[in-house]
């Protein structure tokens, strides 16, 4: 087999065979096929697309390029959730204990964040004592005993994806549905998920800014999942403005605690119930989405989800008193309100710009090596559609720096206030099963 022929075939719009796809992934991972040939193939795929079968084959080949996590010692159907990324996305911190509280095993492998705010592990580490440095045996025992545990990333998962993604990044081929879909799905499958719930974000703060593209990506991933035997569902949710009110690590932990006690922001609570219902159905813990939702709502109301969160923190060394008293979380030295310059209705809060402001405060990493400040960030008091009076606080800045001029400027630039009525954006645009 020759890479040249594979490139030519795809260039001319033909379907690649399983052998051809496995050949190029295999030989590219081992370094036997050079970047320039794979670049040409990526560009051919960008223009010619891939069939559903090719996409599934590509995903499996990427999974097989490295290690796979074996979760077979954990009882039940392991459901993983993946978000295509947003600003102030606190859902994992809430969903993990919430669905665990109704019997869904959550065996979560997580990473540290790059960009706006930290990742799930960074956020959890704002709870004093909490750590993810546990052995894989301990991880499996904890999930069997408590239904939920989080472990740091380890092993050589999907090395082909790492190479492909870096190459696509510099060859203008990131934005291709078959390539994105196989990249995301391969990572979830290699991490051991039996079933997958996808939260595909759309809007100004999302990777897929356009709703139709978001739907196309969601459909592509659901199709790959079903072809490779991992049941997959997707929700298309709004990321034109930040989700919930808090953006910042410890601030988001507090928001998660509020939500688990039934006092969370409406949008964040709704999205967690929507995604959670899918996880419960895929884990066979309810017959349909409505029955699943009733279970989750009960668990929020009767305190079971909140209790599960405390068990989870304790079992990984965390101080569970934080759950009853969030003032024990890291706290910034300065709290400053941002007053509205005019009266009117909030018409937009550009999510990625708010994310940039949070980074300027130190909440996120610019590079993998940066240190982050867990205490800083922003808490919104107004969302799109809310009426505001001149001088009323739009948000609170939590900072450890005196000079907040540039950050305030950035925040003012990202919030628009207009005269007249504005509808709040639709939160759940579509559900794909
Ligand atoms: N996120 C991924 O993990 N892969 C892509 O290709 C794009 C976004
Ligand atoms: Ca949030």
Automatic annotation (TrEMBL):
MF terms (GO), sorted A to Z: 1,4-alpha-oligoglucan phosphorylase activity; metal ion binding; thymidine phosphorylase activity
Keywords: Glycosyltransferase, Metal-binding, Potassium, Transferase
UniProt entry tagged with the keyword Glycosyltransferase: yes
Enzyme class: transferase
UniProt xrefs under SUPFAM superfamilies: Nucleoside phosphorylase/phosphoribosyltransferase catalytic domain (SSF52418), Nucleoside phosphorylase/phosphoribosyltransferase N-terminal domain (SSF47648), Pyrimidine nucleoside phosphorylase C-terminal domain (SSF54680)
InterPro entries (UniProt xref): Glycosyl_Trfase_fam3, Glycosyl_Trfase_fam3_N_dom, Glycosyl_Trfase_fam3_N_dom_sf, Nuc_phospho_transferase, PYNP-like_C_sf, PYNP_C, Pyrmidine_PPas_bac/euk, Pyrmidine_PPase_CS
Cofactor: K(+)
UniProt superkingdom: Bacteria
Gene3D superfamilies named among the record's database cross-references: Nucleoside phosphorylase/phosphoribosyltransferase catalytic domain, Pyrimidine nucleoside phosphorylase-like, C-terminal domain, Transferase, Pyrimidine Nucleoside Phosphorylase, Chain C
Swiss-Prot/TrEMBL GO biological process terms: pyrimidine nucleobase metabolic process; pyrimidine nucleoside metabolic process
Reactions performed catalytically: uridine + phosphate = alpha-D-ribose 1-phosphate + uracil; thymidine + phosphate = 2-deoxy-alpha-D-ribose 1-phosphate + thymine; 2'-deoxyuridine + phosphate = 2-deoxy-alpha-D-ribose 1-phosphate + uracil
GO cellular component: cytosol
Enzyme Commission identifier(s): 2.4.2.2
Known role: Catalyzes phosphorolysis of the pyrimidine nucleosides uridine, thymidine and 2'-deoxyuridine with the formation of the corresponding pyrimidine base and ribose-1-phosphate.
Protein name: Pyrimidine-nucleoside phosphorylase
């Amino acid at each position: 087999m020759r890479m040249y022929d594979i490139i030519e075939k795809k260039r001319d719009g033909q379907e690649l065979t399983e052998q051809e796809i496995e050949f190029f992934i295999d030989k590219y991972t081992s370094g036997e096929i050079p970047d320039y040939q794979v670049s040409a193939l990526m560009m051919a795929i960008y223009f010619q697309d891939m069939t559903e079968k090719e996409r599934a084959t590509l995903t499996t080949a990427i999974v097989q390029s490295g290690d796979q996590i074996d979760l077979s010692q954990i009882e039940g159907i392991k459901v993983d959730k993946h978000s295509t990324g947003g600003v102030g996305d606190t859902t994992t911190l809430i969903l993990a204990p919430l669905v665990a509280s109704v019997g869904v095993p959550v065996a979560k492998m997580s990473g540290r964040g790059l960009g706006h705010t930290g990742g799930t592990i960074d956020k959890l580490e704002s709870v004093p004592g909490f750590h993810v440095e546990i052995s894989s045996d301990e991880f499996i025992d904890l999930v069997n005993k408590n239904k939920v545990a989080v472990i740091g990333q380890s092993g050589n998962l999907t090395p082909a994806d790492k190479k492909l993604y870096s190459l696509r990044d510099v060859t203008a081929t990131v934005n291709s549905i078959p390539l994105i879909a196989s990249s995301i799905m391969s990572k979830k499958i290699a991490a051991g998920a039996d079933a997958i719930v996808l939260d595909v974000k759309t809007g100004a703060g999302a990777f897929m800014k356009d709703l139709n593209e978001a739907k196309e990506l969601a459909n592509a991933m659901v199709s790959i999942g079903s072809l490779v035997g991992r049941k997959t569902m997707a929700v298309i949710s709004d990321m034109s403005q930040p989700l919930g009110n808090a953006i910042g690590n410890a601030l988001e932990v507090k928001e998660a605690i509020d939500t688990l006690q039934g006092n969370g922001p409406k949008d964040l609570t709704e999205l967690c119930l929507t995604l959670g219902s899918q996880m419960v159905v895929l884990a066979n813990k309810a017959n349909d989405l409505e029955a699943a939702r009733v279970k989750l709502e009960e668990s929020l109301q009767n305190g079971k989800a909140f209790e599960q969160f405390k068990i989870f923190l304790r079992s990984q060394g965390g101080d569970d008193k934080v759950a009853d008293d969030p003032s024990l979380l890291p706290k910034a030295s300065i709290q400053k309100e941002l007053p509205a310059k005019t009266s009117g209705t909030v018409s937009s809060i550009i999510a990625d710009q708010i994310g940039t402001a949070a980074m300027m405060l130190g909440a996120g990493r610019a590079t993998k090596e940066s240190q982050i400040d867990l205490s800083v960030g922003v808490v919104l008091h107004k969302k799109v559609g809310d009426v505001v009076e001149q001088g009323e606080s739009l948000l609170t800045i939590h900072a450890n720096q005196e000079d907040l001029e540039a950050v305030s400027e950035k925040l003012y630039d990202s919030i628009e206030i207009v005269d007249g009525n504005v509808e709040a954006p639709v939160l759940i645009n579509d559900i794909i099963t």
